[in-house]
Design a protein that fits this description.
alpha+beta; globular; single chain; about 15% helix; about 600 residues
Length: about 600
């Protein structure tokens, strides 16, 4: 694994996360660093942060770095001893960001580099750029209708198109106040720009809003996209058939900082994204008019969603429409119509995620298992256990990966040669943890209670297998907790048994007798305390009540997650139930509610956890 860092690219072994191979050293040029410091930037900022990676068809590695606010790119060739040797170096403006904290993305595919970043240090010229054999195609410069102060999140290619995920200030909402919306934009790989009217500018750039919201009469939106998974084939709903999977992507969203603090994970099917770009466009007749759907008869034929074989041949009428209509009317809906997982409150926010697609469980169903990173160094493992179209999220585990509570910035699932693990990164650390910890559950009840598709109870142990028995839907199984009594115990019980009639008569007599005794005792106590209560100070009574009812909001205590093994040893341990997608009584939300469920928190260092 090549891991870009400050002035270095680490060459790590995926099995041990150790540097078994030579790293790539790349310091900023001295005069670039001196000039950066003269501009009153800090020593920390005036370094070379590696921000872009691409692999060419011949196996060469393409890297770009900030280079003390003077972006540069290099090509490295892999040597027989697995080291890397620099071949060429070039300007990196428009490919890599200037500032190490600027959000950017890039994808290298089919010999072409597609990037979403900024073209100047002041961040006033954001762009989506394609570079191929010395030619360049980019978005229109300084046009807020195209990209308006964006934060790029991720990008991927599929077929003849490249997609970009980002958030930006919504120009269509400006008449109602400033707002930030999440977007997905797409361009055609073979777009060469227009002939004259839009020379070296995209003729295939369109964007649409991503709708991640809790439905209702007044939907609650999670507007700030933070991260996405890789494009994969999955299904947000559990299914019994492996063929019921489709191209899709999961994404992490947060609310605005001045809104109710919360975050969510939504799933988007690629087919829904394509359908949105095949629909109507949104536009305004003049700057003083509202943004409305453009009538279908005004849309060029063929629909601009189709990639043109030769963009130089597009007519002026089509180019004028494309230049002034980059926004689609409809938003891309979330699969299932609602978030898969939500979190509200002040404890943490979701930051990143990774997905293990379509894991086959012992209940003969397939699940997308979602690993979600938080801004306090934790990783949550979650699934949607619902059948059909119902969303019923379950938090299986809650793992504190970084003890210093550093925010999780990225995650990847490694699956090669029978080894599967989750790679978790922060700004200063990388760690690996196993995808499952089935063997830590020592009883059938705790194993089934995990509701983990990886785990099943087989041969009196909890194993990572789909051949035992499971209880994902309920967290229980009829075969758990059933003990066959010994022959001697069965004989003794038979000899001491009494008839059902005798038992019923005894129960009735006990109930009547206890009722009489309770009435007499209650009457005596009431008579004794009546006089004292009439003369007591009302303030003293009220003070006693308030002192005995602790206000948990004022305790300022952090919640404690409970390990299932603790529950076996001590049934009196208090449990904290992490609730996801709670549905109030009488609510008609389509995503349903998740049952209260204790999650596992591995607070002790994991023996199989690796840090760098």
């Amino acid at each position: 694994m090549l891991l870009g860092g400050r002035n270095k690219v680490y060459n790590l072994s995926m099995n041990t996360l150790t540097e078994e191979l030579q790293r790539i050293e790349w310091d900023p040029r001295q005069y670039d660093k001196e000039y950066c410091l003269m501009r009153r930037n800090s020593e920390e900022q005036c370094q070379n942060y590696i921000r872009l990676y691409g692999k060419k068809d011949n196996g060469d590695v393409y890297l770009c770095g900030t280079n003390a606010f003077k972006p540069r790119c290099r090509v490295y060739k892999k040597q027989p001893d697995d080291s890397f040797k620099m071949v060429t170096e070039e300007d990196g403006v428009g490919k890599s960001p200037f500032h190490p904290m600027q959000n950017s993305t890039a994808v290298y595919t089919d010999g072409m580099l597609f990037s979403g970043t900024v073209a100047d240090a002041s961040e006033r010229d954001p762009l989506i750029l394609k570079i191929h054999q010395g030619s360049m195609v980019r978005t229109v410069q300084h046009d807020s209708k195209v990209v308006n102060d964006p934060d790029f999140v991720s990008s991927f290619d599929i077929g003849d198109k490249v997609y970009f995920f980002f958030r930006e200030t919504a120009v269509e909402h400006i008449n109602c106040g400033k707002a930030v919306f999440s977007r997905v934009a797409r361009v055609c790989k073979n777009d060469k720009g227009g002939n004259y009217l839009m020379k070296n500018l995209w003729t295939s750039f369109f964007k649409a809003r991503l709708n991640c919201s809790i439905p209702g009469e007044y939907p609650f939106h999670f507007d700030l996209i933070q991260s996405t998974s890789d494009l994969g084939q999955g299904n947000p709903m559990s299914t019994t058939h492996s063929a019921n999977r489709t191209d899709m992507v999961y994404a992490v969203f947060q609310t605005h900082p001045n809104s109710v603090r919360g975050s969510a994970v939504c799933a988007f099917r690629y087919s829904d994204i394509v359908k949105t770009f095949q629909g109507k466009f949104k536009g305004q007749s003049s700057p003083s008019h509202n943004w409305l759907a453009v009538p279908q008869q005004e849309t060029p034929v063929p629909h601009p969603e189709q990639c043109s074989n030769d963009t130089h041949q597009l007519g002026d009428k089509a180019l004028n429409f494309i230049k002034s209509h980059t926004l689609m009317d409809k938003a891309v809906p979330a699969a299932g119509g609602a978030p898969i997982v939500t979190m509200h409150g002040i404890n943490a926010l979701f930051t990143a995620l990774a997905v293990d697609w379509q894991v086959h469980a012992a209940d003969r169903r397939y699940y997308d298992i979602i690993f979600i990173g938080t801004d306090d160094g934790r990783v949550l493992k979650s699934i949607n256990k619902g059948h059909g179209t119902k969303v019923e999220s379950v938090i299986i585990e809650d793992i504190q990966v970084f003890e210093n509570k550093a925010p999780v910035t990225s995650m990847k699932i490694f699956n090669k040669k029978g080894v599967k693990k989750l790679i978790v990164l922060s700004n200063s650390n990388v760690a690996s943890i196993p995808l499952q910890r089935c063997a830590q559950m020592k009883t059938c009840r705790t194993c089934i209670g995990l509701q983990d598709p990886y785990c099943s109870w087989s041969n009196n142990e909890c194993v990572a297998s789909d051949r035992g028995f499971e209880g994902i839907l309920t967290g229980h199984h009829e075969n758990c907790g059933v003990e066959v009594p010994r022959k001697e115990e069965m004989t003794e019980k038979k000899e001491s048994s009494i008839s059902a009639a005798d038992t019923a008569i005894g129960i009735v007599c006990a109930i009547v007798l206890s009722s009489i005794i309770s009435f007499i005792a209650g009457y005596k106590v009431h008579s004794c305390r009546k006089g004292d209560q009439m003369t007591a100070n009302p303030g003293e009574i009220y003070g006693t009540l308030t002192k005995n009812h602790t206000n948990k909001l004022l305790d300022n205590k952090e919640p404690r997650y409970v390990n299932h093994s603790d529950l076996e040893r001590n049934n009196s341990v208090k449990q904290l139930n992490l609730l996801v997608n709670i549905q109030p009584k009488g609510s008609n939300l389509p995503n349903g509610g998740a049952p209260a469920k204790t999650v596992v928190n591995l607070t002790q260092p994991l023996p199989d956890r690796t840090y760098v």
